[in-house]
Structures are given as structure tokens and as C-alpha cells.
């Protein structure tokens, strides 16, 4: 599982979801619960990854705006947001 490959994670989710539709899947309750948990965990990883990427794009746009407008206050606020995003990204890596 590669947390930095959301498309790969989505394919893995699809494969696991196909498993849940197979005959006899629900016969082994423990295995079914394990697979459902894995699907849930993968979906959460995709969600967090997409959220972090969107925030990074937003910050990049803000940085460009601060340069165009020569707005030092907005620049400082944006840098602080970038530092916070970096911390969240590092936590996500763990």
C-alpha cells in the first residue's frame, strides 16, 4: 500500500469491494470484518491525501497572489499556513 498513490489506493478499494460481493465472503465473519476495516482505512487515506493536496494547491495560489500584490501581511499568513500544512503532511506520513 502506497499512501502517496491515491489512484493505486482507489484500485485496491475496488478490488476489495469486489471481494465483498463474492459468494461465501460473508461466511467468514472475521475475514469479512478485516476486509471492511481495510476498505475503510484505505478510503480515509484517500480522503486525507486529497484534502492535503487541495490545501497545498490553495496555498500555492495564495503565495502567487501575495507576490503579485506585494502583500507582506498576507504572505506571512500564507507561510504560517504552509508550515501548518507541512506538519499535517508529516503526521500523515507516519
Can you give keywords for this protein?
94 residues; mainly alpha; 3 helices
Q: Low-confidence parts, pLDDT < 50 over ≥5 residues?
A: none
Q: Which H/E pattern describes the elements? A: HHH
- The rounded Rg comes to 19 Å
* Principal-axis shape: elongated
The percentage of residues in β strands lies in under 5%
- Record field, number of beta strands: 0
Distance between the termini: 13 Å
What do the pLDDT scores average to? 91
Number of helical segments with 4 or more residues: 3
Helix content: over 70%
Task: Please describe the topology of this protein.
Layout: H1 6-20, H2 29-69, H3 72-93
Summary?
It is built from 3 helices and no strands. The longest helix is centred in the middle third of the chain and has 41 residues, at 29-69. Helices cover 83% and strands 0% of the residues.
Walk me through what this model shows.
- This protein has helices at residues 6-20, 29-69, 72-93.
- With 94 residues, it is mainly alpha-helical.
- Helix 1 (6-20) runs antiparallel to helix 2 (29-69).
- The radius of gyration is 19 Å and the shape is elongated.
- The protein starts with 5 loop residues before the first helix and ends with a helix.
Amino acid at each position: 500500500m502506497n499512501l502517496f498513490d491515491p489512484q493505486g489506493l482507489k484500485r485496491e478499494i475496488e478490488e476489495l469491494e469486489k471481494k465483498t460481493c463474492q459468494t461465501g465472503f460473508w461466511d467468514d465473519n472475521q475475514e469479512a470484518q478485516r476486509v471492511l476495516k481495510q476498505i475503510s482505512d484505505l478510503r480515509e487515506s484517500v480522503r486525507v491525501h486529497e484534502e492535503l493536496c487541495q490545501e497545498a494547491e490553495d496555498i500555492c495560489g495564495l503565495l502567487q497572489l501575495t507576490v503579485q500584490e506585494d502583500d507582506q501581511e498576507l504572505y506571512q499568513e500564507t507561510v504560517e499556513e504552509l508550515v501548518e500544512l507541512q506538519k499535517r503532511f508529516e503526521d500523515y506520513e507516519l
